[in-house]
Design goal:
Radius of gyration: 20 Å
Shape: globular
Number of strands: 11
Number of helices: 16
Low-confidence stretches: 361-373
Mean pLDDT: 82
CATH class of the largest domain: Alpha Beta
Number of domains: 2
Strand content: 5-15%
């Protein structure tokens, strides 16, 4: 089944003035910002830009395909997506600017964003999400007890800085945490910017605390928010979503569906299904039911405890967790014995969900490889 790469073959010869912006373009731009553009795309305040084609050329002068493929993160596919985009009429001459990346171990945050100027006069502000590392996922979980994260505050400041009064067609989006930042920044940006935003895209991004979704300015932005979740969404089902969401079919199962490259595309849209998988609903209900009983301090302690267990078990990525052996899984469960009984139960259910879904994913991958051989 087709994905973003196939979409480039199908629509790559049409400019944005010939074929208007669509939901797949949103996902492509939300994936593009995962490329390490340091020293390539001009930073904010310079007033300069570089075409995507030139940025791709410079990037691959210092990065080989072999080196990129050796990376653990699933976001490595963004570089190859860019390389193919650079060969299309639709994307090659788009202007990239205002690239920023700030990583703070102390804040447990990683902030990255970029602005993309389209040939139809519009712009897309793309916020990067986290990769598939556990450190990145912890930042998503931190949103359950922080009223505002360092990344969210930086996202607002970024949007207010890079948008000029002459820009009338503004779209904002991101994947994973980047989707959350896109919504948060749009809601908290200056009113003059809010009024010019056409659409906000959250691609499997976590939701917000109840205090956020009850804000008046959130309600005003709500009609412009487009949320897409894969069937077995985990990150995107975290916290509260007031907006309606659309479910996208994936070529894999389980937590690996968070990888946007597995999302199925048909024509100029995603291949939609009616609802998320039962496993995602169960996990969502389990976490929300329990987290809802905790105060802020208890939530923070739970998140710290969960990720400490994963660290002790040397689980560094989602892949590590999805591909865990039964023996390693039992060892992981033993590490939870130091927690209180209720915490043990919730973490146990969460890990079991990952384990069962991960095994299903591996079986699907083996089956696909056999069919291709």
């Amino acid at each position: 089944m087709a994905n973003m790469m196939d979409y480039l073959d199908w629509r790559g010869d049409l400019s944005f003035t010939q074929a208007e912006f669509n939901e797949v373009d949103n996902l492509i731009f939300s994936e593009l910002v995962y490329v390490d553009f340091k020293g390539i795309v001009p930073p904010p305040g310079k007033g300069e830009s570089i075409t995507l084609k030139e940025a791709s050329r410079i990037f691959f002068l210092s990065h080989t395909e072999e080196e990129i493929n050796e990376r653990v993160s699933s976001t490595k596919a963004a570089a190859f997506l860019m390389k193919k985009m650079a060969k299309t009429r639709r994307f090659a001459d788009l202007e990239l600017s205002d690239y920023i990346e700030e990583i703070s171990a102390k804040e447990e945050s990683q902030f990255c964003a970029m602005t993309i100027k389209l040939d139809d006069g519009g712009i897309f502000v793309s916020y990067s999400g986290t990769d598939n590392t556990m450190v990145g996922w912890k930042e998503n979980f931190n949103m359950s007890f922080l009223s505002e994260t360092p990344g969210q505050l930086k996202a607002v400041d970024y949007l207010n800085r890079v948008i000029s009064p002459r820009q009338k067609k503004i779209r904002v989006g991101g994947h994973s945490k980047g989707g959350n930042l896109a919504v948060y920044a749009s809601v908290h940006s200056r009113e003059s910017i809010q009024n010019r935003i056409l659409s906000v895209y959250s691609n499997d991004g976590p939701g917000f605390t109840e205090s956020m979704i009850h804000r008046e300015d959130y309600g005003k932005m709500l009609p412009k928010i487009h949320t897409f979740l894969p069937e077995s969404s985990i990150v995107g089902m975290l916290l509260e979503h007031e907006e309606e969401y659309q479910v996208v079919e994936s070529s894999v199962t389980g937590p690996m569906q968070h990888d946007a490259m597995t999302w199925k595309v048909m024509g100029n849209s995603f291949l939609h299904v009616k609802k998320v998988a039962k496993q995602s609903v169960i996990l969502d209900q389990t976490l929300k039911s329990w987290v809802g009983k905790m105060d802020i301090a208890q939530r923070e302690n739970f998140v710290d405890a969960l990720f400490l267990v994963l660290k002790e078990a040397d689980i560094k990525t989602v892949d590590d967790l999805a591909n865990i052996t039964f023996k390693k899984f039992l060892e992981l469960m033993k590490l939870t014995n130091t927690l209180d009984k209720e915490s043990q139960e919730v973490i146990s259910k969460t890990l079991q969900m990952f384990f069962s879904e991960g095994n299903r994913t591996m079986k699907d991958i083996v089956k696909m490889r056999l069919e291709r051989s």
